[in-house]
Amino acid sequence: MRIETRERRLGAALVAPALIWTVAFFVLPFAAMVWMSLAHLDGRMVVPGPDAGNYLRIFTEPSLRRGIWVSLQITAIVTVISVLLAWPLAWIIAMRVPPQWRRLALLLAVLPFWTSYVVRSYSWALVLGERGVVMNALTGIGLLSEPVQIMATRSATVIGFVHFFVMLLTLTIYANLVQLSPNYARAAEDLGASRFQVIRLVILPLTLPGVVTGAFLTFVLCIGDYITPQILGGNNELTVPQLIMLQLGRRGDYPMASALAVVLMAIVTLAYAACARWLRMDRL
Amino acid sequence: MTLKHTCAVAALCLGFAGAADAQELNALIWCDHADPALLEPFETAHGVRVNTKEYEGTAAGLTILEQSRPGDWDVMVIDAVDVGRAVERDLLAPLPVDQLPVADYFPQVVLDENNTVDGVTYAVTEKFGYNTIAYNKAKVDPEDMKSLASLWSGKYAGRIAVYDYYLPVEGLVGLSQGIATADLDAAALDKIREPLFALKAASKQVSDVVASQTALATGEVDILVGGGEWLTAVLHEENADLDWTIPEEGGLVWAQSLAVLKDSTRPDLALEFVKYITSPEGQARLATSSCYWGMPANRKAEAHLDDAQKAILRWDEQADYLARAQLYPVPDAATDAAMQDLWTDMLQH
């Protein structure tokens, strides 16, 4: 009995720091944010709630509702393209690159992480501009007679995101791939599977946890990102983080900003619930 | 070390800390005030160091103040139209206007209606300029820029950027529809909705200062709606074709003010800073700050500017410009919210 009590105390003591940390830096701030989201702005003063008016506005005002839709669209496009590009890249690094070169290949893959996120976005602005490298090359070789607008469009935002998230996904999928025993593929080949069938029916399903984990991280980071759409999107459509910044920087409307942030968290929670079955953070 | 020694060292450290504290002035500023060439004469004259923190947007500035301890900040640069908001929150200290050179100001930018509340002056104008049309005269016919109607003509579709600030741009669109900035109320906003959306449709981007400057400088766009000397002057050496004008319908005067914070622990030094910035020398340095240029509010700054600087600032044309330009709209809270809603709708359109 005494040993049990001691073990319980030890367990509680070991859990306590993490618990205190979570309560102090997640639960309490989140509760404060929810409470703020239930207040409203009267003139320029914040009036305490509870009042669900901000949530009602988010789902009834076209510009706010469209912000959620734009965010979801961009995030879905970015996640799909990033997975489609990252999986073959990770597979090549894990399966085709000789072991002595893998470290270098991985280093090259994560090279973009070495640059500041803001600097990288501004660099894309210069690359994608009408007088940037891409348009100069395309018009120079005669593929285009006139430069087309990529900068300040959704395409620019997606390109900026994909550049970043392909690297992230490559790492998560690579981590998954290198943990796979080569015996799976050998067994499948012994049983008559073609190389394509081995990839499609054996390796691909086994890497699903890595793909889903990377895709989930991509989803979370992409839908909450302010910098890339702000710099590359040209303010031609607003995502939820941009709407939040408008409430904070321009209007001082903390209740609406909080409500939008809560909606953003709800979306992320739903995304987590949707892919929880496959999420394997321990594979990273 | 004995207790006496420890106490002596501690006292010495506290003394130094106090002395160091007394040698600093904390300023919440816009980027033009971060120029060492502006701050250096004041720092040398008073033997102090000016610590600056840049902010953009009044709401962001007010947030910084609310999240700081009382006394953390001594002076603040603020949009002239927002002085009332800061006074409403009891953040600013009255200024002894009789000790400041406002008599030497361009009369149109004294802006008592903005800087004075209930007969008490809380801020003083320090710099002004115009939100109007900036353009590349090598790519755009300057004759077209004499009328705001050119923006909607289709001739420049896709070559326009809109400065991402609702007050001046909605004011300009109002002027294009014959609505004075002082008359921008809820009913007037309905009238500018479609023209504003049409302007967005003809534009390539709606961008902040840096992105607008980059787009104009790199040739991504040829016209910036809401631009002016504050945007083109710093690019003059790189591209002398970047120009600005006030069209026949008019333009808007922007103005920034300087205020002493109520909880400043160094109110005398803060006032000295205001005196320096509004002095002819301080005004000339502020006008030609490395971040962006603008007209000094104090006319006597002329003596400290060379001919080339005055030409870029269009010193000799100020009388005409000030006569043709209108002040920013000063909306009440409800109209301000409606203007921002309209701006958000435009961005999402």
TrEMBL record, chain A:
Residues 68-275 form the ABC transmembrane type-1 domain. The keyword Transmembrane helix applies. Coiled coil: none annotated. One of its GO terms (cellular component) is plasma membrane. The chain crosses the membrane at residues 12-38, 68-92, 104-125, 156-177, 198-227, 256-279. It is a multi-pass membrane protein. Signal peptide: none annotated. SUPFAM superfamilies: MetI-like. PROSITE patterns: ABC_TM1. InterPro entries: MetI-like, MetI-like_sf. The keyword Transmembrane applies. Keywords: Cell membrane, Membrane, Transmembrane, Transmembrane helix, Transport. GO terms for biological process: transmembrane transport. Belongs to the binding-protein-dependent transport system permease family. CysTW subfamily. This is ABC transporter permease. It comes from Paenirhodobacter populi.
From TrEMBL, chain B:
One of its GO terms (molecular function) is polyamine binding. Its main location: periplasm. Gene3D superfamilies: Periplasmic binding protein-like II (3.40.190.10). The keyword Transport applies. Pfam families: SBP_bac_8 (PF13416). One of its GO terms (cellular component) is periplasmic space. Keywords: Periplasm, Signal, Transport. It is found in: Periplasm. Residues 1-22 form the signal peptide. InterPro entries: SBP (IPR006059), Sperm_putr-bd (IPR001188). One of its GO terms (biological process) is polyamine transport. This is Spermidine/putrescine ABC transporter substrate-binding protein. It comes from Paenirhodobacter populi.
